[in-house]
Fold these 2 entries.
Entry 1:
Amino acid sequence: MKQTKVVLNFPENIVEDPVTYHLIVDYGVQVNILRASIDPGKQGMMVVELSGEESQVSHGLNYLEQVGVQVESLAEEIRHLEDRCASCTSCIPHCPTQALEVDRESWYVSFEPDKCILCLSCLEVCIYSAISVKERLY
Amino acid sequence: MTKTIEEINAKIRSGTAVVLTAEEIIDVVQEKGSKKTAREVDVVTTGTFAPMCSSGAFFNIKQPKDKMKLGGGFATLNDVPAYAGLAAADIYIGATALPDGDPRNSNSRPGKFRYGGAHVIEDLVAGKKVTLKGGAYGTDCYPRKSREQLIGLDDMNDAFMFNPRNCYQNYNVAVNLSDKPIYTYMGKLKPKLGNAYYCSAGQLSPLFNDPHYRTIGIGTRIFFCGAEGYVVWPGTQHNPGAARMENDTPLTPAGTIALIGDLRNMSLKWLRAVSFAGYGLTLSVAIGVPIPILDEEIVRSVSVTDNELKAPVVDYSEFYPRGEGAAKIGEVTYEELKSGSIRIKDQDVPTGSFSSYAKAREVAQHLKQLIQNGDFYLTQWQAPLPGANTGKEATI
């Protein structure tokens, strides 16, 4: 069983194709859509969690690349800037998945990209600008 | 058994002073009792690192060849307005100041507030230069009428932080009872008690450890954003008459202190510009105050724990802005706040803080090191802060 969170970028020419349908039906991949948008320039973006047998997921990812979807790992999309973070914990009640967490012994805040669903709630509430994301995710 | 500050300073000089943080002393008192602890421990260090809006800095800028009187004219630093109603070359920039062009909350709420006075201070402390623009009417003694120049701390004769109000003794826990999210100086509050924010270092916070201002007064030397600083006055809104618990700590925001310190000796580790979406800018500052252990009563004050300190829960949707509804909808201990969830109106409400306990600890540890190394000595105050029975009040 393999599970992976990725960001899919859809170029304009395939934005209207049922890519997710093929991924599920043809490749047997379970697709959990965490976030999706189409910008005014008609580029699409989807944050998804893909799960299935190792081979199903890798064949699914191959299919995506063949049709022109650019696949990026979620960890490359969002970063916790430790040198800016003051571990104040203002992000903690706004993070729905505990990707941002505080150790209640040391009181330092840490970030676990695997738990992140790119909801970007933290972006607005971090007063130290310690969360950085790629511009197009706004 | 009592000690004097002179005796404690002599021990610091000889390297024999026993120094603990306000957190470390808790277990020691529990184990040894307050009498023995008063004998054995000389200094307890407190610390806090949090946004404190009433912060800013005075600058005296070196004169150009044709001299200029900024006083009565105007001055901006990186387009952020500074106050120029002083002598020819003195200006003050406040942490919350915004450039004229900032959209504030007008384009779309919440406004982002990306750059302002706090960032100018941060840039200067980081060693960067900022653009000074000045305008003046020109006089016989100060003929220059305009000036535009990149300046850093080296281009100033003096640069010191002067904060009229820091270090609140206790603070509100902010919640939102309405059905819309709100953006406040206590952060983004989700509707219907979606979250709660607090802002105090609790058992490490300076004034919680000296509830009646016995050792913290005008003239007390402190650790201030990496520099040596001083308490120079009771802070604005100092409100010592607030209701108190049996352990003498206040149940609501109470005492405050006005602070001063040399900006040149400050560092980014201990000072940060911050932006509150929808509200504005402020500056996070690090403050560490040493408390001399003069007697047993002081031991009892500094060994206060988070479960003995309480904060009021206040609705920021109606009561705070408009005075409507109940002043206080609950009361919680700092231990409860730090657990990550508090119970209000039969609801579990997740908590977050703006005061960094991790950094507060770093401040208290750092000050402890400075004292142990003989790099920081204690002072006796020259005048006390107004106390609980002096009639000093504040209407806020």
Note: Strands of chain A lie at 2-10, 30-38, 44-52, 70-73, 78-80, 100-102, 109-111, 131-133.
Entry 2:
Amino acid sequence: MRREIRRFLRIWMQTLLPPAITMSLYFVIFGNLIGSRIGDMDGFDYMQFIVPGLIMMSVITNSYGNVVSSFYGTKFQRNIEELLVSPIPPSVILLGYVAGGMCRGLMVGMIVTCLSLFFTDLTVHNPLVMVSVVLLTSVLFSLGGFINAVYANSFDDISIIPTFVLTPLTYLGGVFYSIQLLPEFWQQVSHLNPILYMVNTFRYGILGVSDVNVPMAFAIIVGFVAALYSYAYYLLRVGKGIRQ
Amino acid sequence: MTKALSISGLRKTYGNGFEALKGIDLEVEQGDFFALLGPNGAGKSTTLGIVSSLVNKSAGQVRIFGHDIETDAVNAKKSLGVVPQEFNFNQFEKVGDIVRTQGGYYGLPAKLVRERTDYYLRALGLWDKRDVASRMLSGGMKRRLMIARALIHEPKLLILDEPTAGVDIELRRSMWDFLQQINRQGTTIILTTHYLEEAESLCRNIAIIDRGQIMANKSKRDLLAELQRETFVLDLEGSFSFVPSIDGYPVELEGDHTLIVEVERGQGLNGLFEQLSAQNIRVASLRNKSNRLEELFVRLVEKNLG
């Protein structure tokens, strides 16, 4: 875990600075310029409404991105062998990478939260929900990044899922809008998107409003975490992609 | 006494159907300096990969100091240090960090890790480079870094896969001295190398593997005793346009003043020199055509091909 933290802090210009700049642009363009014309959403001004979603988007992309690039880099440079010859059990290796992804995801989340305070006031409606959902989401996407890296055979392979799956699901996961605005059919389709549950549960923790049932959202997120952890552990134990 | 390494019935078939190991048995005694030799693709790296948990075996059993690599993996791995053939450290990390991090993987206390890192970096001539990114090191330094990393937990068995490949002669000699020193201190060493001179100088016991099978496994002395014939090169004083006739010794003239002579085991060289003297042929110098182990190795592998 220490090695993982050292890695992303060493290259902070690539890991911490870009999301801070991107999110500041979102706040200025969507929140201030366009948001002032949109008006209220779910009883909050548009800037307040999108802040929880943008924080969650940062946590998701950075947790995922940290583990996928770090583990693939470790495979690519073959220094995964340092871990394989050592007596560290697969579960601890996995937890180390997940903890590294969580640290970066949560650190970027904190940076984005601090930046958002320059644009709007934030009050926390339910701290327990807010903290627990952001932690679980960070674990979930760290695990996702790990599985992606196990299967990746080239640097292209580690950008396919973030570009073609993660980004669309995040944008369609209620970051910028309430799904109440959608026609009934698309509302039902949106409920198939797991990121919708994370964004809305986090928004509930901060603003107290949500498009989804919060206990059910927790059950879904915990279910995904359990499934992805089991699968990632299995892949590591059999040495998929790392042992011949 | 428990063997440092015990391999029985080890098989490996890769996904493409290639059978790299065909059921090998091998034992290495504690404290030994052991060489595993073989041509490219013979199965050396596969064998060592399985022992190091980097390659999954298809069948068989491997024990390191009595610990099965599957059922008692933690103790087996704690007893083992590995120096692979290819550089396999993070090129962006600093030399000191690479060694220290590896110590952490073995659960060593931070103070001990610092002490050992300092000791091995100094012993291997890397102390001045401790804060340099590993990619900035020369090839020889990178090899020494991998040795320092493998020794951080002071394993009882150290495996080195081609440790001196691409290393200059002076540095190779200093690495030999270092390896002999840690072997004298009790570390069992298993080495693969293409420099047969290296194996002949360092190792007490030797196994030769070819096409996934062990062709020979005995002490260096017994192995060399199997050598039935040696080839000598004699540099002659003066030039010759004809091949001298020498009874009992097949000879060839190479150039105009070099004689290649094959000598059967037990035949001795006295008869050769007597005949050369009788013909007024003076010998300026004498040497083996190749080193003895190399000659034996080539014959064994050729026999297997035949």
Note: The longest strand of chain A covers residues 40-41.
